[in-house]
Inverse folding.
């Protein structure tokens, strides 16, 4: 069976970008693939976190994964820090990842520009840990949004470099990027990606319908006097973003959407997109709220997940330790 793996940092509450760009494409494949999905808590401490909030979000993220359709019987769902092999292989791969490669990572450039008071070593070497997260499970595909493609490409380079020295240890994974939803932009700043750091332009999975509607009604469009719903990323980035979201939620094509709103204007278009998002998220929010209340169940899921994940991860780690010349314990 082919293998699929991905993770999300519990550094903020999950939002529409995480859902359309990543999670939504995970659940549909659990019949064909062996799937591993985790809460990337090790990664979050590259930026200072409030401990109690991190703990809460990590467990709530698991509830949201399940509510998004990831059945814990068919997918291995776990917390990254529960599987020590991630940190262990992360160290090894640090020694096979080049300073120059890490310097070119756009996420590092962005984050180090934003958190100037805490440009720590972990923030810089983070992609080596991400390579370890991936390579431990020998996946065929890594489903991510557009912004993570560069990290998956780095992972491929590191794996190839390692294999070149030691023979075929790692499978070379492919990034798997959705057509609609790969890059969801901020509703009030359509030139930047949707992220929790711009909360007014960000729609959270657990957000109330009236708040979601308010954000869509205020979404930035353009001053095209025609008020025309037409897909043009360059000239009309706000409208293109809303069309992308609408397409991802309804399965409609851009041509169909253009026809649907022909002569209707943004005053009709924006709330219609809002409604589509509200209806897409409603069952997720309700199910997640129910699961969050059931701490014992979530605990049982992440414990079983860590056990299954560790079994596979340790196999790869043992192989790597042997290859590089460590004495077997
Ligand atoms: P993270 O936590 O920033 O984002 C998680 C996933 O959501 C996608 N995403 C988006 N997609 C579309 N539009 C957006 N506005 C948007 N914002 C986020 C991301 O592309 C990603 O798929 N380094 C990773 C976490 C990670 C990981 C891994 C992923 C750690 N180890 C191993 C895959 C495999 C990260 O920071 O993603």
């Amino acid at each position: 069976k082919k293998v699929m793996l991905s993770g999300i940092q519990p550094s903020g509450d999950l939002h529409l970008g995480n859902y359309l760009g990543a999670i939504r494409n995970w659940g549909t494949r659990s019949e064909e693939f062996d799937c591993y999905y985790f809460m990337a808590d090790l990664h979050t401490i590259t930026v200072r976190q409030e401990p109690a909030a991190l703990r809460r979000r990590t467990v709530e993220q698991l509830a949201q994964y399940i509510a998004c359709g990831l059945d814990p019987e068919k997918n291995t769902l776990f917390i990254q820090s529960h599987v020590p092999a991630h940190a262990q292989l992360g160290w090894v791969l640090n020694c096979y990842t080049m300073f120059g490669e890490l310097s070119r990572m756009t996420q590092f450039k962005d984050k180090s520009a934003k958190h100037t008071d805490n440009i720590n070593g972990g923030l810089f070497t983070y992609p080596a840990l991400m390579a370890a997260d991936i390579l431990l499970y020998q996946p065929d595909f890594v489903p991510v949004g557009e912004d993570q493609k560069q990290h998956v490409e780095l992972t491929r380079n590191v794996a190839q470099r390692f294999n070149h020295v030691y023979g075929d240890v790692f499978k070379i994974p492919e990034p798997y990027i959705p057509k609609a939803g790969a890059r969801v932009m901020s509703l009030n700043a359509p030139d930047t990606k949707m992220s929790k750091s711009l909360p007014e332009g960000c729609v959270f999975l657990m957000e109330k319908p009236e708040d979601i509607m308010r954000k869509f009604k205020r979404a930035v469009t353009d001053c095209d006097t025609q008020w025309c719903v037409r897909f043009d990323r360059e000239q009309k980035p706000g409208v293109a973003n809303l069309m992308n979201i609408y397409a991802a939620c309804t399965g409609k094509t851009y041509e169909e959407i253009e026809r649907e709103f022909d002569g209707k204007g943004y005053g009709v278009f924006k709330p219609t997109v809002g409604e589509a998002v509200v209806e897409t998220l409603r069952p997720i929010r309700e199910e997640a709220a129910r699961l969050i209340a059931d701490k014992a169940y979530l605990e049982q899921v992440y414990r079983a997940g860590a056990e299954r994940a560790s079994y596979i991860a340790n196999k790869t780690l043992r192989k790597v330790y042997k290859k590089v010349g460590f004495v077997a314990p």
About this structure: The domain at 2-182+294-324 is CATH 3.40.50.620 (Rossmann fold).
